[in-house]
Amino acid sequence: MGWTAWCEQLLIQAQGGSALGPWAELNKDFYQAFVQEGRWKMYLEGVGNTLKVAVLALILGVVLGLLVAMVRTFHDQRREERPGFLLGILNGICKVYTTVIRGTPMMVQLLIMAFVGFKSSRNLVGVAALAFGINSGAYVAEIIRGGLMSVDAGQMEAGRSLGLNYIQTMRHIIIPQAVKNILPALGNELITLLKETSIVTVIGLRDLTKAAQLVTSKTYGGFMALFGVALVYLAMVMVLSWLMGRLERRLRSSER
Amino acid sequence: MSGKDVLIQVRDLEKHFDGGSIRALNGVSADIRRGEVVVVIGPSGSGKSTFLRCLNLLERPTGGAVVFDGVDITDPKVNIDLHRQKMGMVFQHFNLFPHMTILKNMTLAPMKLLKKSREEAEEKALTLLDRVGLRDRADAYPSQLSGGQKQRIAIVRALCMEPEVMLFDEPTSALDPEMVGEVLEVMKDLAHEGMTMVVVTHEMGFAREVGTRVIFMDGGIILEEDRPQELFAHPRSERLKTFLAKVL
Ligand SMILES: Nc1ncnc2c1ncn2[C@@H]1O[C@H](COP(=O)(O)OP(=O)(O)O)[C@@H](O)[C@H]1O
Ligand SMILES: [Mg+2]
User: Fold this and answer.
1) For a surface tag, which of A74, A95, A222, B57 has the fewest beta carbons within 10 Å of its beta carbon?
2) Do A119 and A203 contact (CB within 8 A), yes or no?
3) Is residue A17 part of a domain?
4) Which one, of A96, A128, A126, lies nearest residue A109 by Cα?
């Protein structure tokens, strides 16, 4: 008798009210959570959606974060040299953006995006990615800005005193040094982002977490599904940290 | 001396910080002629660094003018980057670029700004490294050097741009005592070669030996200025007398 047939039999036994041994129980739960009725496909679809939201949000977040960090840093460092009305306005907008986004819960932002901003949209992945991207952008901006600020002010002065302009000094002197501070924090932000996406279940998007919820409600209990997705999240995070670690080491060894 | 020998003309320079609550410079005027070695002394907080940093506009003056080589560089329309290329600056804390080798530190600006080829820029850098006895450290990173070595590199890095004037802000103040000499030697050589120099320092020996003029600053103004022998032998103000009593 194959494992599948055995598990089917166990299911019938359990429904009939007979008690199973712990090993048999475990097998039955596992079967029910991941195999029966091709349920693994739901998880697969869930992982797909989770990754889609996370990757799209990451791209949007980094682009937004870079832009905001550039405006804020440029404004703070060049105010004296080139005061500008437009730059002042842009800086103000960026400040409001980071303050509001970082000062309100992600869940609320997501709900606003889905039920106020894009009420009639059926592209839930798009809506979620937008909400997470906008959220992430504010944090990424602060990470990049902090990284740039953490480079000793004497470096900018030394570059400028040689006659390099602001952009050249940024590009050749400040940014290469800042990247070392920025990357680890950016890696953390990415990991947080990936895990945070689990709240997209509130707008009905079938991500990895939602898959576990659906299965759990269908099979009446069993922690198997939840433990299973927890493991998948953990695996994804570990792969990410490993990749970030490699990238950091690579950078460090090329510098010194 | 004729007026055209003046390389930097400073007129009524004012620098106020924080909307006027801190008055670092209160009307400083000075002419710096080609080939001069002007030594700036004065108590801490008297405005020496601010004065020096206004010369290449690292600090933008709130009043007055700096005329460099006939051009008022405080004019906002002036491209300051172009003029800074001709004004080398050496900082108290060296400010070498830690992510670049010594050679890269020295060739970056000449390659980007003077459009020198890598070979040209490296040749020039190596010649200068030879002069300060550090040719064998060309491929080292700043973190592998001693303070004295770092400062000598910072000096030749500025020289790679072939500046017309060198500005020094307390170049030996962050050094261990045994390393002060090697840096001063390089600066003296530079002075003997006829480089125009403005040097903020507490090294009175240096001022005496190679200074053509000493400026004593206090409270954001020039209180006295003269040839070093005169100034040290016959201080007129009480402030200078007190100051000299402390440092000599
Ligand atoms: N960036 C700044 N912001 C505010 N005050 C400053 C700044 N730089 C210098 N000052 C003030 O200006 C005065 C002169 O400083 P400084 O030129 O550094 O003096 P010194 O180099 O002679 O010690 C001091 O009172 C100092 O606190
Ligand atoms: Mg100073």
Assistant:
1) A95
2) no
3) no
4) A128
Task: Classify burial at B2, counting beta carbons within 10 Å of its beta carbon; exposed 0-12, middle 13-18, buried 19 or more.
Answer: exposed
CA distances from B4 to A150, B78, B82, B215, B248 (A): 44, 21, 21, 21, 36
Within a domain: A106: yes
* pLDDT tens string B177-200: 999 999 999 999 999 999 999 999
> Is residue B81 within 8 Å of A163, Cβ to Cβ?
yes
How far from chain centre, in Å, is Cα B11? 19
Residue A210 counted as domain residue = yes
pTM: 0.86
Q: What is the mean pLDDT of residues B215-244?
A: 96
Note the pLDDT tens digit of each residue in A199-223.
999 988 888 888 888 888 887 766 8
CB < 8 Å to A152, chain B: 95
pLDDT in tens, A52-92: 999 999 999 999 999 999 999 988 887 666 667 888 999 99
Mean pLDDT score of chain A:
89
The alpha carbon of residue B82 is apart from the nearest alpha carbon of chain A, in Å, by 6
CATH number for the domain spanning A249: value is: 1.10.3720.10
Nearest residue CA, atom 24 of ligand 1? B45
**Measured CA distances, A219 to A4, A38, A103, A214, A231 (Å):** 17, 13, 39, 9, 20
Q: How many domains does chain A have?
A: 1
Beta-carbon neighbour count of residue A121 at 10 Å? 12
Q: Supply the range of the domain harboring residue A185.
A: 46-255
**Cα–ligand 2 centroid distance for A153 (angstroms):** 15
CA nearest B224: which of B208, B241, B209, B207?
Answer: B241
Bridge partners of B13, per DSSP, are: B28
Is beta strand B165-169 parallel, antiparallel or unpaired with respect to B87-90?
Answer: parallel
CB < 8 Å to A165, chain B:
81
Q: Answer whether residue B3 shows pLDDT above 60.
A: no
Asked whether the beta carbons of B58 and A161 are under 8 A apart, the reply is yes
Non-local CB neighbours of B165 within 8 Å, separated by 6+ positions: B7, B8, B32, B86, B87, B88, B195, B196, B197, B198
Q: Which of B40, B24, B31 minimizes the C-alpha distance to B7?
A: B31
Instruction: Give the DSSP letter of residue B211.
Output: -
In a domain, A15, yes or no: no
Burial classification of residue A197, based on how many CB atoms lie within 10 Å of its CB (0-12 exposed, 13-18 middle, 19 or more buried): buried
